[in-house]
Amino acid sequence: MATPERRARFPARLGEPQAAVRRAAAPLPAPPSGAGMDSQAVRAAMVERLRALGGMHPQALEALLRVPRHLFLDPGLAAQAYLDNALPIGHGQTISKPSVVARCASLLLDMLGTKPAKVLEIGTGCGYQAAVLACLAGEVYSIERIRALHELARRNLRALRLPNLRLLLGDGTDGAAVGAPYDAVVSAAAGACAPEAWLQQLRPGGVLVAPLGQPQRLTAMRKLPGGRVESRSVEDARFVPLKSGVL
Ligand code: SAH
């Protein structure tokens, strides 16, 4: 049984009127936002794991350090945001793995050799890669065919305030004539081959990074002056399919 002394030191047992008064007077502090995933240190650890894979461009890694990936995920998945996973974003689609985003960004930076003025992303999804690209390029256009995801990306990106990023709703197999010509086109969806419009909308010397073929291979192309295209197969890939039409 509690002695009078202990009662004096621990008066606030649950259920006692006194405890209720104390709780009302001293509300719980708000839980940290992003389930604790908003820590720069968690993101920095992910970036160091990506650096260890080799071949990543330092500016691509810098961009992944800046963009809070957990903000693009359902709160129930936020704890997995800084693992190298593709995760569901609804409508049968996924957010790309950080290593894939870093690889695609590194390829375009290495091949261009300078900061890209204008980039087109095919397949906005939740908007994560679009935000990464917006940290690297002068201007980014990102097109999505599923309206609900286009709107999700708009909501996810609002807080980041990226004035150089334009989200478009449409079928990206036609590219996006509105911003052409582009220094780079990056596709987050896999097709049998690169649609003609993507190459047409590249400036001479511009690069295309896309998963192509069956089985899929991440492929890097350069449009040479004169219109010829140079192509390099980089590595095996597993992206969602490129589809036609707008939903
Ligand atoms: N960029 C995203 C990846 C999204 S998954 C990220 O940051 O993680 C690829 C996206 O491509 C899907 O949202 C899918 O709906 C979209 N997509 C597929 N075919 C498309 C097309 N023809 N035009 C535009 N978007 C397309």
Describe the structure.
The chain is α/β, with parallel strands linked by helices and about 250 residues long. It has a domain at about 20-30 and about 100-235: 3-Layer(aba) Sandwich (Rossmann fold), CATH 3.40.50. Helices cover about 30% and strands about 25% of the residues. It has 8 helices and 11 strands. The chain has helices spanning about 5-10, 15-25, 40-55, 60-65, 100-110, 130-135, 145-160, 195-200; strands at about 85-90, 95, 120, 140-145, 165-170, 180-185, 190, 200-210, 215-225, 230-235, 240. The strands form 3 sheets. The chain has a 7-stranded mixed beta sheet. It is globular, with a radius of gyration of 23 Å. The N and C termini lie far apart (about 70 Å). Mean pLDDT is about 90; it is low at about 1-30. It binds S-adenosyl-L-homocysteine. The site of S-adenosyl-L-homocysteine (SAH) has 25 residues, from strand 2, helix 6 and strand 4.
Task: Summarize the model shown.
With 247 residues, this protein is of the alpha/beta class. Helix content is 31%, strand content 24%.
What characteristics describe this protein?
alpha/beta, 247 residues, two-stranded antiparallel sheet, seven-stranded mixed β-sheet, binds S-adenosyl-L-homocysteine, 11 strands, Rossmann fold
| CATH architecture heading of the domain at 18-29 and 98-236 | 3-Layer(aba) Sandwich
Calculate Rg over CA atoms. Answer: 23 Å
What pattern of helices and strands is seen along the backbone? HHHHEEHEHEHEEEHEEEE
The pLDDT mean sits at 88
In which range does the helix fraction lie? 25-40%
Number of E strands: 11
Instruction: Name the ligand types.
Output: S-adenosyl-L-homocysteine
Would you tell me which CATH topology of the domain at 18-29 and 98-236 applies?
Rossmann fold
Return the CATH class of the domain at 18-29 and 98-236.
Alpha Beta
Separation, N- and C-terminal Cα atoms: 68 Å
Strand content: 15-25%
Number of helices: 8
The residue ranges in which pLDDT falls below 50 over 5 or more consecutive positions are 1-32
